[in-house]
Design a protein that fits this description.
Chain B: The chain crosses the membrane at residues 12-35, 109-131, 138-161, 167-188, 200-221, 258-281, 323-341, 353-374, 386-404, 410-426, 469-486. Chain B: It holds the Pfam family TctA. The complex is a heterodimer of chains A (161) and B (502). Chain A has 6 helices and no strands. Chain A has 161 residues and is mainly α. Chain A folds into 2 domains: 3-81, no CATH class; 85-149. Chain B has one domain (1-500). The chains are: A mainly alpha (161), B mainly alpha (502). At the A-B interface, helix 2, helix 3, helix 5 and helix 6 of A face helix 8, helix 9, helix 18, helix 19 and helix 20 of B.
């Protein structure tokens, strides 16, 4: 708990950073609203609601920042304390790699390696199970979608699938 | 008499073989996601939203509704047998349900949960049949000012009931409104926040946002922990509760049903609040409150009835006003919109087959659930043994396919992954996604009604307080916004705060 309470003014106060991100987003929304034209109260323009929502965002973010400075907040480290933080990082990395490869390599060539990685890296599944699951599930889904539901999944540069 | 004719018409629609099939698929998947911890009705509904496109609107919406109330049934099984809530509304059931199971009374606990759910679900449907048409006839008189104020109230109630800081929940609601406004302005057709991307001209889709924030983020959070399951291994017998069990449960069930239904109607309220409220009420009314937490059947009967009645009640604001009171109903609204339908006061008169068909299917679905959850309980227990290291990769793959199928667009997969990562960090930093999603759905309607009311009133802001319904909604919203500043109210809020995303 001491870790939670002694980070009032420190840079690793996660509450403070949350508020600052909110404030920056609010500022951006206000600027976007102004750029889109506010119009008048009789005839509000495209930026009218955005502008006032941005102001509200800044107010709420300011409240979070004030609370973070006055009461302190948990550090970033404490948020991930006693967790297997590497696991979500691995899953995120796999998903990002999948996102980049989907258009280029198509659904089948991207999803089979994705399944192998996820099955082996989260909590390792035996290879005897990993291989059939990683092959059969994407192939099965692809077959159902393409043949039964007539949905075309991305086939990539090799036009597989 | 009119109601009876309409109900008969509804059963005519619901009993069509294709609708019966969709209803069964819905309640089956609902029970499945209710049973499996880590996947809630929101993820399942967003995953299946694209599939609703393949059939008639009735079939699709019957299936989506089935997933919602089916998950309420299934959630209790996991709570009782594993002590892990299958979905958020079953958190309270763990307390006494699992204790009963440990004492060898898993059967009566499961039985009373299923019967309580059935009775409450039936009551909610009858009440829905009686209340919805009346409310719809009143809602016809609603103008943009009333709609705007009602939506503001709905968002404020949800932020009030969300776990943690209210400032964070309100910030999330604002972010949701902004995200909802991305794309062409519905009045001036001017592109907003599109950053020159053609894919954003039509705005961000609901499916990738919801699947990212609830599906992917949930998996990311779950992979952080080693999930331990304490499954009751004894044979489950005596599913029919004894006379004494019925006697002890009758009062809690009745009170839970009425409380749940009323809380379900409230915008922002819902099954989670209802189940917690019912448990607190029963404990307070009990002559032996010390039994609560040690296997009191009242602690299972009341909350289970309450969460099912609330699930039924939640359909009222959506069907009669077109306003989704919670995230699940927002997804259902998405299903209506996909089919070019707009729920609201005119839907009951203009599309009676759809409205009464859905209502009748819910009754049939409740009967199916009773069969699925009692005689087939063994199957669900086996399912609880499915390892998570296989389940999570499958969920990820299904969400990717679900998102792609909703739009046939790879860009939506990128959006989902981005929102999955954002959702994970949001949850880690204590920002709940539920207000964001509800505001995302309500945002465009909120803006439209605000601008319409300002144009109609020639910029006169008093239009919002001159109209009684609008004034009452705004007054209540202000009270809720100000109340956390009072220490006594802050404590009460913390007690009822919920976690919609669970």
């Amino acid at each position: 708990m001491s870790n939670d309470s002694d980070v009032k003014f420190r840079l690793n106060n996660s509450e403070l950073w949350g508020g600052l991100i909110g404030l920056a987003l609010g500022g951006f929304v206000i600027w976007s609203g102004l750029k889109l034209k506010l119009g008048t109260i009789n005839d509000p323009g495209s930026g009218y609601v955005l502008f006032y929502t941005g102001i509200l965002m800044c107010l709420f973010a300011a409240a979070i920042i004030i609370a973070a400075l006055a009461e302190g907040g948990p550090s970033f480290g404490s948020r991930w304390q006693n967790t297997r933080w590497t696991k979500p990082v691995i899953v995120i990395a796999c998903l990002v790699a999948f996102a980049f490869s989907l258009d280029t390599f198509g659904f089948l060539l991207s999803s089979i390696p994705l399944m192998v990685l996820l099955l082996r890296l989260i909590d390792p599944v035996r290879w005897q199970l990993t291989i059939p699951i990683a092959l059969l599930v994407p192939l099965g889904m692809w077959w159902i979608l393409k043949r039964l539901l007539l949905i075309q999944l991305p086939s990539g540069i090799f036009e597989i699938g | 008499m009119d109601t009876l004719i309409n109900v008969a018409h509804g059963f005519g629609v619901a009993l069509l073989p294709i609708n019966l099939l969709y209803c069964f698929i819905g309640v089956f998947i609902g029970t499945l996601v209710g049973v499996l911890p880590g996947i809630g009705p929101i993820s399942a509904m967003s995953l299946l939203l694209p599939i609703t496109l393949s059939g008639t609107p009735e079939s699709g919406i019957i299936m989506m509704a089935g997933i919602y109330y089916g998950s309420m049934y299934g959630g209790s099984t996991t709570s009782i047998l594993v002590n892990i809530p299958g979905e958020a509304a079953s958190v309270v059931t763990c307390i006494d349900g699992h204790q009963m199971a440990k004492q060898g009374r898993a059967g009566p606990a499961l039985g009373i949960a299923a019967f309580g759910s059935f009775i409450a679900g039936t009551f909610a449907l009858v009440a829905l049949m009686l209340v919805a048409p009346k409310l719809a006839s009143i809602a016809i008189a609603f103008g943009p000012a009333e709609y705007f104020s009602l939506m503001v109230l709905g968002l404020v109630v949800l932020t009030f009931l969300t776990q943690g800081s209210m400032a964070k929940a309100l910030l999330m609601a604002c972010v949701g409104v902004v995200l909802g406004l991305i794309g062409l302005d519905s009045i001036t057709a001017q592109p907003r926040l599109t950053f020159g991307r053609v894919e954003l001209i039509d705005g961000i889709g609901l499916v990738p946002v919801v699947m990212g924030l609830f599906g992917i983020a949930e998996v990311l959070l779950n992979t952080e922990q080693v999930i331990k399951r304490d499954i009751i291994n004894t044979r489950i017998t005596h599913l029919l509760p004894s006379r004494a069990d019925w006697k002890a449960s009758a009062g809690p069930m009745s009170r839970g049903t009425i409380m749940g239904f009323l809380l379900g109607i409230l915008p922002g309220g819902g099954a989670v609040v209802a189940s917690f409220g019912s448990y607190a009420l029963e404990k307070r009314l009990s002559k032996t409150p010390e039994r609560f937490g040690n296997g009191a059947i009242e602690g299972v009967a009341g909350p289970e009835a309450a969460n099912n009645a609330a699930a039924g009640g939640a359909f009222i604001p959506l069907m009669t006003l077109g306003i989704p009171p919670n995230v699940v109903m927002a997804l259902l609204l998405g299903a209506f919109v996909i089919h070019g339908l707009q729920p609201g006061p005119l839907m009951i008169t203009q599309n009676p087959g759809l409205f009464w068909g859905i209502v009748a299917s819910m009754y049939i679905g409740n009967l199916m659930l009773l069969v699925l959850n009692l005689p087939m309980i063994g199957m669900w227990v086996q399912l609880l043994k499915l390892p998570y290291n296989i389940l999570f990769p499958l969920i990820i793959l299904f969400t990717i396919i679900g998102v792609y199928c909703s739009s046939n667009n790879v860009f939506d997969v990128y959006v989902m992954i981005a929102f999955g990562v954002i959702g994970y960090f949001m949850r880690k930093l204590g920002y709940e996604p539920a207000p964001l999603v509800l505001a995302f759905v309500l945002g465009p309607m909120l803006e439209n009604n605000l601008r319409k009311s300002l144009i109609l009133s020639q910029g006169n802001l008093t239009t919002f307080i001159e109209r009684p319904i609008s004034a009452a909604c705004l007054a209540l919203a202000i009270v809720l916004l100000v109340s956390p500043l009072l220490p006594a109210m802050r404590k009460k809020r913390e007690l009822v705060a919920l976690d919609e995303g669970a």
